[in-house]
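Researcher: Structure prediction, please.
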Amino acid sequence: MSEKSITASRRHMGLKAASRVSNTLIHILLTVISVIWLIPFVFILLQSFRVESTWQVGYVVPKTWGFANYINLFDSDFPRWYMNTFIVAVVTAVLQTVIVLCMSYTLSRFRFKGRKLLMRFMMILGMFPGMLTMIILYRVLSDLGMTQANAVPGLILVYIASSGMGYYVSKGFFDTIPKSLDEAARVDGATRFQVLKKIILPLSKPIVIYTILTAFMAPWGDYVFAQYVSMGTSAGKNVAVGMYGWLNKDQIASRYTMFCAGGVLVALPVTILFMCLQKYYVEGVTGGAVKG
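Model: Predicted structure follows.
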């Protein structure tokens, strides 16, 4: 073997060893970050099974285990709050997904006068925080009778009202699908709706799931606007607003472990969805992150 070959071989081995060390350090760092990130969730899970005391304690592992906290949840207003949140999240996810996908398909495939101006207008309008509209929105919902005990339909209306402005990621994904497919289907006599339903959407499964997940998560964990609309009426609260009331000084002594149990039940649906659909979620984000 020549001297050059020996030198190249040693260099290759050195790079390979350096790569192994670098990968090991990265994995150790990621493991440490994951453990730190999971500590609060593990703490809440353990506290939800503690039955010897309902107050905050100075230890993590319960001395007496049981399901009393979960059982007691169903003797409170928690089921009503949970159902309110579920209804709002599911209806919002369905309607918002339909609106976003239709808007994205229109802006991706159609060329009409004012298209770019409309896109710029929606992008600029989306930069303003929603907090600026809370007062007028409450006034409108109050006039329509959609506040306090009837806050559920009011929240759904607000969540889907401007959903068309969230077209960015979906439009970017649709832009990656060749327009020749649309043209071929149109030549065969398909309508625009048939093209969207039978050609575009089957090829866009990742972005559809991504849109559903993001549309579901926003109302599922909302607190600020839900608190503003329900205005202390238990019948119109979602889980975030209802459970936050258990942390005040009058209730925390008897509701703390119930709060932990409720937090576990609230996190469960989102966790399961992400575990089952994370592949499509990542594909939807990366596939839609293109210039369109």
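Model: The CA atoms of residues 58 and 204 lie 50 Å apart.
Researcher: Thanks, that helps.
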